[in-house]
Amino acid sequence: MDWSPRQRGKQGSKSVQTCDNFILGATDGRFYLLTRNGKADKGVEAHQGAVLAVRWNQDGTSFATAWAPDGQLFAVGSFNMMRLCDRHGWSYAVVKTQTGSLLNMRWSADGTQIAAAGGNGEIIVGQVTDRWIEWNGFEAAVVDERTVEVQNIRNGATEHLEFRDRVTKASLAYNQLIVVTSSQCYVYRYFVLVDGMNIYVYSYDGRLVCSPKQPNLRTDLVHATGFALSNDTIAVKNGMDEKTIYLFETASGKPIGDGKPIVHSNDVVQIGLDQCGPPLHQRLVILDRNKDLYLMSVRVFGTNRKSTKLTTMASSFIWSQTSNILAAVVNDNISVWYYPNIAFVDSDLLALTTHEHDTQEEFGKQPELLSFYRDRITIRRINGSVSSLTVSPYPDKLHQLIATNKWNEALSLCRNVKDKMLWACLAGFATCAKDLDMAEIAFAEIEEVDKVEYIRYIKGLPKKEMQTAEMLMLSGEYQDAEGVLLQAGLYFRAIMLHLNSYNWNRAIELATKHKLALDIVLSMRQAYLQQANRTETLERYLSQPRQNLLSTNALKERIEKEYEREQAHKEAGNTKPTSPQNRSRPTVVT
């Protein structure tokens, strides 16, 4: 319930009386206008569900509302007043006018000017100023329509940049200031301009790099949350079909891979690309309408696109500018993934490399992530105030050491910090880089005994191809592991790879193609069905005869003999034969 703030009579006179009306919210989804005596003057259908809170506008009735083209601002017109608000609802500024009631409002196409028509016939035009951006000790503010003021926080130096035309956009990041006016772009790697008709990628020296083209892509519907850029990749959400994301190469503007877009299961709200590392390991983050946060690979070579769900109930996210660390607002708290790629390498370690900061008391509900630089996240509260959150600086340093191939320094950092989270990150890096020694040390520090034993088994394998394939299996890259084994002529190990990962169709396909170990494949499939108390449903297995099935002991002996035969065959084919060694081999447990 809330009383109307409207007054009758002239301000300051004794005849001023408050209005006797009040508004009341009800559980049936309606709100009612009532007099002091309790008489209901009118009921309005508000929404589905109970109306929990109602408030009068202290400045009187709003007659017009207009959203900026990019959806970040909206303006509200009332009697002799215009209010500029953020998309979350808090107010930037209030301007008093002498136009009477503002009945209609329109934004310019670039979102920097707004025109409004008053009830007395006057038309007013306003310019959005005092737009402020910050990066790594520098601040830039658009103080008026043609001036940008840049200040160095460290030494207090200030510079005023005057432009001939009206400033429409400004951005400050990566040691570069970019100012876009109505006719020119001033650049004080790559940046992107979207003019409503095309997408242009420029280098920082002003050279046009590319202009990606896609017939099904509406560039006039492209906004910041549906666009992502890195040194290697451009990702654009299709405004006509919000489940579709197109990927382009930054250097050429050509579609990546076969040109097919990513089609998500739900409408996409926000996308983002990591900014560091090689193109092959680049990752794309998708936030969909269900508030689910997904991480997926960008470049795919003959395999299905890797994708995993990081969390649910996320409202926004941001990548670090200096390393591939991801931060997101999850249930109004800040969650940080210090090595999100570990979800593909070893999903068991994802929780160890994730830290949730309980920030509801400090930042309130629905905080907005503005920037993430090194160990500092800049956050805007729901009331518009800006604050910062400091996270651990060591993961960012670890990322930079690994990127420059300084593994010994990275190991020393982990030993000095003595943090399990940092050791888990190092284990993921080492597994991805196929560094057995470093991976063994890191897994031992986080007490992953099974993985330490498996790495020791891998180190004991006689062939480099076997070690590479097993490390690929450890990091979840089964198709790449199969390719390594097949190229090395280790067909039986390739079959066993799929049997041990329950990829039954591919296992019998390889056995039939190479005419090898078909009885082992059928016997392991039958043992699996018996243990699971299931019947056969796969057509490839239904068409095979059942008379050659092996018992459990015979199956183990047959697998051992096949390993020995394959190893002897490979050693006989080498130019410099090596003496046979008694190595442990993976066996089937039934």
Automatic annotation (TrEMBL):
A Pfam family matched in the record: Beta-prop_IFT80_2nd
Basic and acidic residues compositional bias, start-end: 560-573
Protein name as catalogued: Intraflagellar transport protein 80 homolog
SUPFAM superfamilies: DPP6 N-terminal domain-like
One BP term from GO: cilium assembly
InterPro entries (UniProt xref): Beta-prop_IFT80_2nd, TPR_IFT80_172_dom, WD40/YVTN_repeat-like_dom_sf
Keyword Transmembrane carried by entry: no
Residue spans of biased composition, Polar residues class: 575-590
Ranges of residues in domain IFT80 second beta-propeller: 189-394
Keywords linked to the UniProt accession: Cell projection, Cilium, Flagellum
Domain IFT80/172/WDR35 TPR: 422-567
GO CC annotation: cilium; intraciliary transport particle B
Region (Disordered): 560-590
